[in-house]
Design a protein that fits this description.
single chain, 531 residues, alpha/beta, FAD/NAD(P)-binding domain, 3 domains, iron-sulfur, oxidoreductase activity, metal ion binding, metal-binding, iron-sulfur cluster binding
Length: 531
């Protein structure tokens, strides 16, 4: 039997962060994970993170994963992969299946950071091959390079459904629709907006009535729901698809904690069965801590901070960190975590209908219902301005904890202020130099550079672009609106890439100037008749 000061179960963002902090304090640490690769969800996440510098904002998830692995190695924490923890027993004995063998480990403290599992909803045909979780689709795409299908319908409009829909499009899949039983979109508006302008339609409140096929998915029928969540006859719509992705939330994987005898709480606001923990993340069993999604569903950035806290608390429990130092570190991390738990999507606001921003501006109802801000709504937000010459236009309309645009602008054209959830605004007294750093840095891809008049009745729009192969200078395609509808012919006048842009190309298109505030995406294909 091997002994360690601390056993961490789960090598995801929370578990790795916990192991790093405890090992840095001097504890001997081993981290188990059942997967062949560490990092949990991070290595599936190719998008850029929200938050601020301290939260690793504008860094892509898989790069954060590499950073954490490097930190864990440097701190001396051992990471054991293909290691499935079978149970936590008396006196903190942990039984682990490592490849084909069974091993026993003991520690003076345990941190459980097992994360969460995807939920599923039953409907006719839900067991057919081709009906998969959105997370499974993301694993296939980003870890194994396999397309889950060619034509996909997404069920669920939370951040997972929105992000995976975008990544499916990036990989060449045709996402025919995004469907949700709720009357409004559940995830970040900027995520919804970036897939709306690619032409993916939203259907709310709709859900799946039937998936067709015998040995695999061949189609799906959706129907609208009344306020009692019953199908409204006559509203059925059919789509020919080969894949249905389900993104209807997550449930904490808390079975090991329950098995260990920890006191549990059935808490729907936290996603299901979660352990009862004190202010230090300690369960009802002294020395056993919980961190990350296993104690309540949140974003990965929050999970990393919770993991760091758990590592510090465990190190204090083990005697490696004195109370005073623990309190100092705790206060610092509490402040960072509090910053992420602000704004419209704060845990305290779950289930609430927010009607105004923190600045007192009416929320875009069109964004909530259809996935894009309507032309008649966009002008009321502080990031949308008109001025001579090139200038930023920031279509960020919800209070989300995020501020990399403010840091990215070398001329300080963009201002958010000290409150991380404030809507970005343009400092009209400062001239933009058109460098494109704000465009590439925005995790929500909600920033554009606009020159409303470049002469000869034309305007230029600089926008983020992550669809490969990239367009070529001089080619002509279609400019799409926020709703994903063709608005005009567009000519590509500049394509910029670079290390500082981190694989987000900065694309400049030229359009008739009457479309300067309407054209928001470029489509590479033959010109449509509707243009």
């Amino acid at each position: 039997m091997e002994r360690y000061d601390l056993i961490v179960i789960g090598a995801g963002p929370s578990g790795l962060s916990a192991g790093i902090e405890a090992a840095k304090a001097g504890a001997s640490v081993i981290i188990f994970d059942e997967n062949e690769k560490p990092g949990g969800q991070l290595f599936k996440q190719i998008h850029k993170f929200f938050g601020s510098k301290e939260h690793r904002a504008k860094v892509r998830g898989f790069n954060i994963g590499y950073q954490l692995l490097k930190e864990a190695d440097e701190a001396g924490a051992k990471v054991e992969l293909s290691a499935t923890v079978l149970g936590i027993y008396q006196d903190k004995e942990v039984v682990v299946k490592i490849k084909e063998g069974i091993k026993h480990f003991k520690a003076d403290s345990i941190i459980v950071a097992t994360g969460a599992a995807e939920n599923m909803v039953p409907f006719e045909g839900w067991t057919l091959p081709g009906v998969i979780g959105a997370g499974a689709a993301q694993t296939m795409l980003n870890l194994h390079g396999i397309l889950p299908g060619k034509k996909v319908l997404m069920l669920g409009s939370g951040n997972v459904g929105l992000v995976v829909s975008y990544q499916l499009k990036q990989c060449g899949c045709d996402v025919v629709a995004l469907v949700d039983a709720a009357p409004r979109i559940g995830g970040y508006g900027v995520h919804a907006a970036k897939i709306s302008r690619m032409g993916i339609p939203f259907y709310l409140p709709y859900t799946i009535k039937k998936v067709e096929g015998t040995d695999h998915v061949t189609g799906v029928t959706i129907a609208k729901l009344d306020p009692s969540f019953k199908f409204i006859e006559g509203t059925e719509m059919h789509f020919d698809v080969d894949t249905v992705c389900v993104a209807v939330g997550l449930s904490p994987m808390s079975q090991l904690l329950k098995m260990a005898g920890c006191k549990m709480d059935d808490n729907p606001r936290k996603g299901g069965q979660v352990p009862v923990i004190d202010e230090h993340g300690q369960t009802s069993i002294p020395g056993i801590f919980a961190a990350g999604d296993v104690s309540g569903i949140e974003e990965a950035s929050s999970a990393m901070i919770e993991g760091r806290q758990a590592g510090i608390y465990a190190a204090n429990y083990l005697g490696y960190i004195e109370d005073k130092l623990m309190k100092e570190k705790e206060d610092e991390l509490d402040k960072a975590l509090d910053g992420l738990r602000q704004g419209m999507f704060a845990p305290s606001n779950r289930g609430k209908k927010i009607e105004k921003t923190e600045e007192g501006i009416d929320i875009s109802n069109n964004l909530l219902a259809k996935g894009f801000v309507a032309d008649e709504e966009i002008e009321r937000f502080p990031g949308v301005v008109h001025k001579l010459g090139i200038h930023p236009v920031m279509e960020c309309t919800q209070n989300i904890p995020c501020n990399p645009c403010q840091d990215a602008c070398p001329k300080k054209c963009i201002k958010i202020g000290s409150k991380i959830t404030s809507l970005p605004a343009v400092d009209e007294s400062v001239d933009c130099i058109g460098c494109g750093m704000c465009v590439a840095s925005c995790p929500g891809q909600a920033i554009f550079l606009v020159n409303e008049n470049v002469g000869e009745g034309m305007a230029e729009i600089t926008l983020p672009y992550e669809i490969y192969p990239l367009p070529e200078v001089g080619e002509k395609g279609i400019a799409l609106s926020r709703a994903g509808h063709p608005v005009c012919i567009a000519e590509v006048v500049k394509v910029r890439t670079g290390l500082a842009f981190d694989k987000t190309a900065v694309l400049t298109i030229r359009v008739p100037k009457e479309f300067a505030m309407k054209a928001r995406f470029y489509k590479k294909e033959k010109l449509a008749k509707s243009v």
